[in-house]
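Could you help me review a protein record that somebody else here produced? This is what I was given.
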Amino acid sequence: MLTNAFAHLVKGNTNSPDLPIIGRGKLPPRNEPLSPEMRQAIADDVATNQVALELLEKGLALKSCRYPVDLTPGYAALLPHLLGLKKSAHLIALRNHLQIEEGATKILMTVTDPIQVHTTGFIPTAVGKQPTAALKEPALPKDETATVF
């Protein structure tokens, strides 16, 4: 299911000065809103990848999954699914930023949490708790809370 989602990912404009995380855009300080241009660039990328996001949510609802990896080469084994995980984490991070900007109090943290933590600055915690800041610029203003599930 997840590999199907990875196949539906559409690469965003990595040269865009308005697209953070995957482009050249830089997120504003944590207590400032996204610029209208950045908000639109994120919304466009999320809309373009809506099919992939729906497949990701279905795949992440599974209790477990496996990727066909040949481990016989040892440390030289190819792990092509990792690129899909990274791209998915970036897309989910963009969507989360957009949803938070729109006032959402529930955001999706996934099996790609280690990458998500790197991109958004949040460590997932129990449902109903304030996420803990891990990096310089957390996605939520200090006075807001989010439910992480």
The two ends are 20 Å apart (CA to CA). Helices lie at 2-8, 36-48, 50-60, 81-101, 113-120. Residues 2-148 form one domain. The longest strand covers residues 106-107.
